[in-house]
Amino acid sequence: MSVGKQKNIIAPSILSADFANLGKEVESVLEAGAEWIHFDVMDNHFVPNLTIGPMVCKSLRDNGVKCPVDVHLMANPVDDLIKMFADSGATSITFHPEASKDPEKSLNLISDLGCKPGLVINPDVSLDVLQPYLNDIYMVLLMSVFPGFGGQEFIPEVMNKIKKMREIIDSSNLKIRLEIDGGVKEENIGEISKSGADTFVAGSAIFNKPNYFDAIKNLKNNFS
Fold it and tell me: 3-state DSSP call for residue 27?
């Protein structure tokens, strides 16, 4: 029997937060009902932007942030960053398989360091690349935009990819989270949820709203 969808999770991306008040921003979205915090880590090499590193994660942990911290590495190479983020308090770490010389080794490194491992698939990358690693991952992150910048629109064609990935997860009888990142908002989260996702990264859909409680409540109210 299939394990099926897990509990839905909202993971605000701090890429869209006010960095001058980051601690307060994180505290506010957690109080408003978010379950996780999401880190978009860009290196200005693998993707054309430069964002945040492990010191930010450590600072939040040192200042009392206890929720799961979900780290998406858009960087190459990944293994050194995996170690640094694990040491800084990351809960889960995902990376793009094409950014690692040995994805299985990188996945094992994440697990060995006490974090939950996952792989990220860009809109133009086949789900077939995941097949060798399904037994080793906690989460699959499907990008619904091309990574590099926040505030992009959801690519409609990714919806079919979500459905296909849900079928793969269910048929594997494995407890794998299916995360979506890119253009997630109140107007489309219902269809994304219905298609099989259970973990939703939202940046501008939360941090650009005047009231975080209402923003997160409205996202959750649209779950299928």
Answer: helix
Q: Which pTM was predicted?
A: 0.96
Q: Is 181 annotated in the active site?
A: yes
pLDDT band, residue 2 (cuts 50/70/90) = very low
Question: % helix / strand / coil in the chain, to the nearest 5?
Answer: 40, 20, 40
At 148 the pLDDT is: 79
Q: Which of 40, 43, 70, 198 is catalytic?
A: 40
Tell me what the mean pLDDT of segment 82-86 comes to.
98
For each of the domains in the chain, give its residue range(s) and CATH number, in order of start. Answer: 9-221 (3.20.20.70)
Q: How many CB atoms lie within 10 A of CB 21?
A: 11
CB count, 10 Å around CB of 56?
A: 18
Return the bridge partners of 193, or none. none
What is the arithmetic mean of pLDDT over 92-105?
A: 97
Element (H, E) at 213: helix 212-221
Q: Is 87 a catalytic residue?
A: no
Average pLDDT of span 33-40: 98
Q: Which of 43, 70, 181, 198 is catalytic?
A: 181
- Residue 121, classed as helix, strand or coil, is strand
